[in-house]
Amino acid sequence: MKKLLFVVAFMLITLGIRAQELTVKSELALEPTAMAAKIHPRYDLDGNAAAVILVDVASDKAKFPTSWKLGEVERKGGHYVVYVAPGIKKLPVEVDGCLPFEYDIKASGVKLESFRTYSLRLLLPAKERTRAIIMPQYSFGKNQGAYGLMVGFVKKHGAFLRAKSDFSFISTHGACDENGLIDGHMPWYTGKSAKKRWAVTAGYVARVAKPLYLYGGVGYGQRVLAWERQDGSYVEYQENTYKGIEAELGVMGRFGIFALSAGVQTNSFKYMEFNVGVGVMF
Fold first, then answer.
1. pLDDT confidence tier of residue 210, bands split at 50, 70 and 90
2. How many degrees, rounded to 5, is the angle at CA 163 between CA 159 and CA 169?
3. Are 115 and 41 in contact, with CB atoms under 8 Å apart?
4. Which residue, 139, 131, 134, is CA-closest to 150?
5. Which of 53, 135, 155, 249 has the most CB atoms around its CB within 10 Å?
6. Average pLDDT score, the chain
7. Dmax over Cα atoms in the chain, in whole Å?
């Protein structure tokens, strides 16, 4: 269980920091009326004239790190003017906030020629708006249930806070061991028992693929099993009482504004329960 939690937590962090990719809006194509490559020609060391690629991408910080590039890249009229040697097979593009992208010129079927101008249109990843999460949840484990509420926000990644309770307000006085003994003595018990469960966790949410999200969190909580003594007071039964660090992992699916969730949660890696929820993400 511990190894699973650590692996999924690492996946959440990795997915959350992962940049997004450029996509091709319009494939490389010859621009027969464009004259940039003829009017302002550039040449490589062997005297071969360059081809020009007009790269249209909505960013002021695009870079083209290729050894086939001839001279500095200029930005004019909303596109980048990139002079390249005709033999180039791929055009790498780097934009802040996006994964490095490499356009395959050979696969496009276009053969670059000297003094010719071509166009290529790229799309930045669509901007996503931040969504709020409000999700009532129910937890169950070892014949005990609890009600919870998750609130948070997420874009590509986000955060959440969740609290749960079974609304049991019993108070305990002391604790007994697995044999019912308190300091070596056996008190009189009525045979009745009571349970108490509460937890508060906070954590991280990451969208891995529309409409799927993963979440993981840590916090503090307790699950108490108590036995009633003859005087009406309760003592904790230590064998099934857990107090300490809470850890949880789960998955959410968004369908319009509605969302469903399912996950597992543990206290001190000893007590485990399942969480399910239905809510909104808007």
1. confident
2. 170
3. yes
4. 134
5. 53
6. 91
7. 102
